Amino acid sequence: MFYKRHKKGFTLSEIVIAVALLGIILVVISLVFMKGLFAIKKGRYRATAFNIANSKFVELSNAGLSEPNGIPVADFPILIKGYTGCVDHGNTTSIPWPDSGGIDYEITGVEQFPGLDYNFDITVQSYGDNLKKIGVEVTWNQPDVGKQRIQLYTLLTREEI
Question: Model's pTM, two decimal places?
Answer without folding.
Answer: 0.65
